[in-house]
Amino acid sequence: MRIGLISDIHTDISPANREIVSHLADSARNADLDVFIICGDISPDSITFSKTLLAFYDLGERCKKLFIAGNHDVWITNGNRNITSHNKYSLITKLCEECKFHHLGDKPIVIDNIGFCGNIGWYDYSYKSNKFKIPEENYISKTYGTSVWNDVNYARWDADDYQMAKYFEENLKEQINSIKSLSTKVIVATHHVPFRECVRYREELPWDFFLCIYGQFRFRKNIFRRTTYRVRFFWTFSYRIL
């Protein structure tokens, strides 16, 4: 099976980011893929989001196109206080369907006896550096000095980060349980980083402070330790892996 993966296109940020999409689509088309996965962070704007997905519309009849949301995709940037990131997450499923993508965050899928599961992942500050003693309120406010992580302004879940990390952990376990009898291999895709070993600490601030939002290690700790999963796991993810 030939699988292609991209992430963090951020087509809302600059014309250069938008221009590269057609080249990415050409590369995916020429690769003759069986599965194409976008691991999140296209745009918080629904129109820009859909236009970007549609650029990958014609990858061939055989190619299955999958998507998982990134934190930027669930941002609420239009000032509408009646919309939450939960609402946005549901909208992403609808937009993906309209653009012929399958949103893994909504449900898993089995392709040629290989299971595909995934979701955004989120974070619980478990990647915070052990070197620096920083008050918990800084992590909650996602602020260090004059630097701010904009999830605090635009990601509007109905729960705190700890609860959302747990929610997505449970969601992923449910996905795996629903398909584990249908395949011997499962490919998991998340936006946030599930392995602390993939996070590079510099022992300097504010760099190490903001690593707290890179992901959570609960995924590996609480999912991979389950001996009832008699399947082989392959994990792919994005989010500024260094």
Fold topology:
Elements: E1 3-6, H1 15-30, E2 35-38, H2 46-54, E3 64-67, H3 85-98, E4 102-103, E5 109-111, E6 114-119, H4 136-141, E7 143-144, E8 147-148, H5 151-154, H6 161-179, E9 185-190, H7 207-210, H8 218-224, E10 232-237
Parallel strand pairs: 1-2, 2-3, 3-4, 6-9, 9-10
Antiparallel strand pairs: 5-6, 7-8
Helix pairs in contact: 2-3, 6-8
Can you put this structure into words, describing what you see?
With 242 residues, the chain is α/β, with parallel strands linked by helices. Helices cover 33% and strands 16% of the residues. It has one domain (3-237): Purple Acid Phosphatase, chain A, domain 2, CATH 3.60.21. The strands form three sheets. The protein has a four-stranded parallel beta sheet, with helices on one face. It has a four-stranded mixed beta sheet with strand order 5-6-9-10, covered by helices on one side. A hairpin with a 2-residue loop joins strand 7 and strand 8 (147-148). Helix 2 (46-54) packs parallel to helix 3 (85-98) and helix 6 (161-179) packs parallel to helix 8 (218-224). The longest helix has 19 residues, at 161-179. The two termini are 27 Å apart.
Q: Please report the distance between the alpha carbons of the first and last residues.
A: 27 Å
Biggest sheet layout:
4 strands, parallel
On the 0 to 100 scale, the average pLDDT is 91
Number of domains: 1
Which strand-content bin applies to the residues? 15-25%
Number of helices: 8
The CATH class turns out to be Alpha Beta
Shape, principal axes of CA atoms:
globular
Number of strands: 10
> What structural class do you assign from the helix and strand content?
alpha/beta
Return Rg in Å. 18 Å
Contiguous low-pLDDT stretches (5 residues minimum) are none
Give the ordered list of helices and strands: EHEHEHEEEHEEHHEHHE
What helical percentage do the residues reach?
25-40%
List the strand order in the largest sheet.
1-2-3-4
CATH architecture descriptor: 4-Layer Sandwich
Seen as an oligomer or otherwise, the chain set is single chain
CATH topology: Purple Acid Phosphatase, chain A, domain 2
